[in-house]
Design brief:
By secondary structure, the chain is an alpha/beta fold. It has a single domain, classed as Rossmann fold (3-Layer(aba) Sandwich). Helices cover about 25% and strands about 25% of the residues. Bound molecules: S-adenosylmethionine.
Length: about 230
């Protein structure tokens, strides 16, 4: 399957393994990953965030309940919410999640946004698990036609050492562990370039704060809710 589908499947496999109840996808674009996760029975709350409202709205109606869902009501309740906003801003609607995914997001962030990102995701949202994927620039010479970056909207592309040192610094600062993996194996003879997509899986070291919402988390709303479906 194409790499983007492998990335979605990687998240779906993690969801099946760890059974998070609340999952947020940052930079959710046309909500394809959210739509796939809607079929995971463990999930009770799904949220998407993107800075491009129109892209997010394009296919969002896939997230609405289907007629069959009314005919065969299930035990679980599922709420799906889409927010328009930036990962550079904190909003209390992103608190209390078990898993936060950022698939091919960070390389689209401006320097000032990237600087705020760790504090927003690891410091403020502070989910039990965070998954971040981004291109591995060492693989680029194997991609036909790629000169500087894989897409013109990328602000940077990191090699493994750059991504791993950024990720380890964020993990250390916010008390997470991080492990690295990837998707898209290089052809025989070129294995040393690593995966096409590099992935960091971060796990929070400290236990959940339960109902304690400390004062710094009484933050003003910064996102606009553009869609909500209750199943
Ligand atoms: N995660 C999706 C996937 O894997 O197919 C989409 C990845 S797309 C390459 C990157 C997305 O990040 C775009 O939809 C873009 O609008 C969004 N994005 C860029 N900057 C953002 C920001 N500051 N806050 C939230 N989303 C942002």
């Amino acid at each position: 399957p194409p790499l983007y589908k492998q990335r979605y499947q990687f998240i779906k496999d993690l969801v099946i393994k760890y059974k998070p109840k609340k999952v947020a996808d940052l930079g959710c674009a046309d909500c394809t990953l959210l739509w796939m996760l809607k079929f995971c029975k463990c999930i009770e709350e799904l949220a998407g965030l993107d800075i491009r409202e129109n892209v997010m709205k394009e296919k969002m109606h896939r997230l609405s309940p289907l007629p069959a869902d009314y005919l065969q009501p299930s035990e679980r309740s599922l709420t799906v919410t889409l927010h328009h906003g930036s990962v550079a801003h904190k909003d209390p609607c992103m608190l209390g999640f078990d898993l936060v995914t950022c698939i091919e997001l960070i390389e689209h962030l401006e320097a000032a946004e990237l600087e705020k990102f760790p504090e927003v995701v690891f410091g403020f949202m502070a989910p039990a698990m965070v998954v971040i994927s981004t291109p591995n620039s060492e693989f680029n010479p194997l991609l036909p036609g790629v000169t500087l970056f894989r897409h013109s909207d990328h602000k940077f592309e990191w090699d493994r050492a750059q991504f791993q040192s950024w990720a380890v610094a964020a993990a250390t600062r916010y008390d997470y562990t991080v492990e690295f993996t990837g998707l898209g194996t290089p052809p025989p003879g070129t294995e040393d370039v690593g995966f096409c997509t590099q992935i960091g899986v971060f796990v929070r070291k400290y236990p959940k704060n339960g109902e304690i919402v400390n004062s710094e988390k009484h933050t003003e709303h910064a996102y606009k809710t553009v869609f909500k479906a209750v199943h």
